[in-house]
Amino acid sequence: MSFFSKFTAQRIARFARLFLLKPSEQRYLAEASKSGLFDPIYYRGAYPHIHPLYHRLPLRHYIVYGERMGFRPNPDFSPSAYLRYNPDVAAIGVPAFEHWVRGGHKETRVHKELPEVVEVPQTKMPVLRGHDTGGTAPYAIVIHIYYPDLWEEFRETLEQVKIDHDLYITITYRGDETDDLASKIKKQFPNALVASMPNRGRDILPFVHLVNSGMLDSYKAVAKFHTKKSPHRADGDKWRRHLIEGILPKQGLQEKLDAFVADDSAGFWVADGQHFTGEEWWGSNFETTRSLMRRIEVPVDHGKLSFPAGSIYWVKPLLLGMIKSLKLNENTFEPEQVQVDGTLAHSIERALGFLCAATGQKVVQASQIDPKAQVKRPEPPEYVSAFYLPQFHPIPENNAWWGKGFTEWRSTVSAESLFPGHLQPMLPSDLGYYDLRATEVMGEQAELARDAGIDAFCVYHYWFDGKRVLEAPLNKLLEQPEIDFPFYLCWANESWRRNWDGLSGTVLLEQTYAKGFEKQLVEDSLPYMRDPRYQRPDGTRPRFVIYRPEDMPDPAASVAAMRDAWREAGIGEVELGAVCFHISGENQVADDLFDFWIEMAPHGMVSGSDYLFGGPDGNKLGFEPAEGFEGLIYDYNAVANNSTTPAYYKKLPKNTICGAMPSWDNTARRGRMAHIAYGANPGSFNRWLPQLLEKRVPQSYRKELFLNAWNEWAEKAVLEPSQTFGTLYLDVLKRHIGK
């Protein structure tokens, strides 16, 4: 027999052995299969070098060959460590994983290598500021070094990376050794940022510290890896290289990275075998993970654990922003005591999966990224508007009703947090606590909005039978034609009441409809309509919106009178719209009375089953709000789902502009009587928008989108930058609708 024939026969015999199991191996196979503790996806990804035929029967391969070769059945179990820490098992000669499956896991035996205890000097967290040192490349690579001896391996990896990137390296401080290594790295990579870190939070805190600094804000994607050692694995070095090469392949990195960035559904990119799913991966981290996610109102389902394992991945900007919004710092991480589980660092690893799902994104493995795949994105709207509140300046009426100098900033800053993780108060960042009498602020707002894809502000026009309030910002704008602020008016024709809802409570400023009010209202609108910045979305007709048309005594007659008055004034035809309000008024309004209607989220979108508190099913939150809370809390994501359900939107007038909201929470105005959309954050907004673009905008009036709102701070319906989320809402808009 030739050598080739003999070699082939041996390979066939080895493969056939998988089907010729001994009785003990057959029992082992049955028990391991039933337990669910063997992870075939992990096994294939962890050991790509074994023959593809064995990949078809991974558990059989493990039982016959893999365990003796030091392979792991899942990422969390080390056969060699199990036998070393459990000598009674080694003494009876039972395979380590078989014993674990049969009962060892119920006895909570040590099943993986315990970390090495190393004493290192103390040091302070470095001060990092993104605006001082932000990079210029499209991508960033972030490395944390705990084991200095691995630097040379990482240097070789970096020298093979052929994409344009900025480099950030953090090092666990060990004294002079770290100082010497930092100097060496700076000589090898002069443009890298190198910073020493205290031995706290493993590789997670150094990464979070970089994220919090703002240094990583501008990148299309960020790669993160660290000096991962696996002493419990015979092939630990090979395994680490597999994880890193899974995200930094030697061939085709740029093409894969382009595909990853282009795919809006992808949030994390990990090596094959590193997307862990299943409740068995919780360990003792569930409660900490749930508490962590409540910081930004992200629910955690024990049965839906899915996360990027190993802390080696590419990550998208939205997820970095969501990590930043958790407001973690050095003091929130436990001191390093060589914990094997249950720390904040362990919980963050799992929390990343829930963050990813909350944004409507997913974890993808290297082999799932296809550079040749065609990514089809929904068409952006033809025109995007956002409601705009011109309230932020003092007026005599508010001074009398609420105290001298009152603006809604006073209510906004005093809002209470009413339950664990309740995101109140929500406070401004980039634009500060502005006063709209300083008209340049409106120019800054318009610049932010324009960059995000918003075409115009629909500004509330407060007119009460000839009496104007809150008119100063727009009047001052007319005096400064150089400020590019695209706008049109919405007559907010409801009475002002002390409880802010326009429907009940003590009347502060009553809306009446005196005979001939239509012509007077039109005359008041003329200076604005004649301004070149006043919007004509169809290219011809100036647009005007009425907030509550059914409150007018005779809506049809009033609309006709207003149209005639605009014609007589030389304006010509006006594109006249109205808001679809959630509560019907006294007077019916035909759908075709107006050129269009505006769907104003959340009005009319909340159904009985969507209430988490205060609805027909009682308290479904899983925790109690503050004592005395009598308001309503409903599920933001359920409202988003409702908006794209035919049973809901087919009830709207056909000429409706579809709408969305970033959030809704009027705690600042109504305290413990507030209405709150739970789970509203830039991530859930990112889930909603693509669905609207795909299912609603194509049938929307003129393919438009309406956002509620730009700056309703006391209702937390805000797109402007905030201290909680930075510019994330605007970033989400720009990603989906930016021009």
Automatic annotation (TrEMBL):
Classification via CDD domains: Glyco_tran_WbsX
Q: Which InterPro entries match?
A: RgpF, WbsX
Q: Report which superkingdom the organism of origin falls in.
A: Bacteria
Pfam families xrefs: Glyco_tran_WbsX (PF14307), RgpF (PF05045)
What protein does this entry describe? Rhamnan synthesis protein F
